[in-house]
Amino acid sequence: MEVFLLALVLAACLFLIPIGLPGLWAMLGVALLFDWLVEPRIGVWAVVAGAVLALVAEVLEYSLAARFARRFGGSKRAEWGAVVGGLVGAIVGVPVPVVGSVVGAFAGAFAGALVGELSRGSGTRISGRAAWGAFLGRIPATVVKVALGCALTVWLVLMAWR
Question: How many domains does the chain have?
Answer without folding.
Answer: 1
